[in-house]
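Re: the pair you flagged

First of the two:
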Amino acid sequence: MIDGTYALAGALTGFVVGLTGVGGGALMTPILLIVFGVAPGTAIATDLWFAAITKIVGARMHHNHGQVDWQVARRLWLGSLPMAMLIVVLVSFGVEFVRVEWLTKAIGVVVLITVVGLLAAPKLVAFARGRRIGQPARFKAMQPALTLVSGAVLGLCVALTSVGAGALGSVMLLYLYPLRMTPHRLVATDMVHAIPLAVMAGMGYLFAGMVDGWMLASLLAGSIPAVMLGSLLAGKITGRWLQIALALVLLAAGVKVLF
């Protein structure tokens, strides 16, 4: 039976994801930990599949408008998917990350890093834009390797905490592609990259029996219509004000998780 409170949490997160591409893990995991008291392992495992399925719906709508930068997504996958696969293999062989004492704190730290990234994004973009224009050949030559490394960092964060694919990923892309990433292209590309990453990372937890199916169904019941609505509105309104509000909410959540 669908739980209305989980569905409401899913709807809130889905709307934010559809509008900005951010929040699948950064928002949902703290909600599950703080509001619902879900165990860290179950929260991470369930959120990975929640994010993957929710973003499939949102990404489909963005793709229909031709906003996905597939070259950038492929560069990220070269780093993120092998790293996620490594974590899946370790989980499959019995390495129990979810029982490690620092796991909850790691989630809090990644959430706070996400906050800093969201708030500092405009300044990072301005700095990167200056370098891109001032040293175009050098900047472009470094983009593929730096994108791959960024993907590996995202893969590690997402596989261990379910946080980072959207929020940290969007900040990294804004820095690496300051002229190429328009707001709508950023949302679409970041969302498409996150889907196979979340699926890959979620496999190990699924096989380990950590995914709560009923909770996932309730979350999706709210998120799927909400992410469609958010995706429709993404082309009509700016998401910057929402990113700032999200950053403030995540700041409180990150501090709560840590302390």
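Second of the two:
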Amino acid sequence: MDIPKDHPRYKSLMTRERLAHMVEEGMVTPTGLISHGRGEAYDYLMGEKSIEPAIQAEKVAAAYLLQARNPVVCINGNAAALDADNLIALAKAVPAKIEVNLFHRTPERMEKIIAYLESKGAGKVLGRDPDCRIEGLNHDRALCTKEGIFDSDVIVVPIEDGDRAEALVAMGKTVISIDLNPLSRTSCKATVPISDEMTRALENIIRFVGELRGNDEAIIKTIKEYSSADNRCETVRCICDTLMAGFDTAGDE
């Protein structure tokens, strides 16, 4: 589709086109399109920018990743299709391992996503040969590797299923979610829920990794001062402010 770059929805439309193409390629499932549309709606409500609570959470995420013993960036089909480059860049910046984990799992789809990430420069990608299970899950997202997800202490889970986020927290892991919906089960259960568009979130975390690296005092302070409940509350307040600003503007016209 030929979308002019000056179209006000250019980025959004290009993202949708890329996801639709990835469905044809077998990397994204049709239901993944529904998930993306639902998230995009929340981005509208946040003004399509990284709001202050998101920036705060992204800094905390960087702090946890720098403290981690075995950090892992977990990737599903939607995440790979949306921004494989920045997911790989984050893993390299920390550094962290990468593992692919899918709900709609088939050997063919796993291979396509892993091969795609490797073609982007990811290096070793875990997930082809799972040898462990996440406790409390009865579907294919329970499958994981001991080297990666199972033995991780800090894990980044963009576009996550809430039940798996909850199960990972129950295993004692620090779970960093990227989910535009601050009211989702994932956001409610994650240790550090980030309500931001994925590319913006990843770029911010990468920036904070660079800023915090080597500054143990700042890392500890950043984590100590953070409250996920307060942060989500502020996120909802920002959404309400955006909605009311829209009404105010409409009334002036």
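The chain has a mean pLDDT of 91.

-B.
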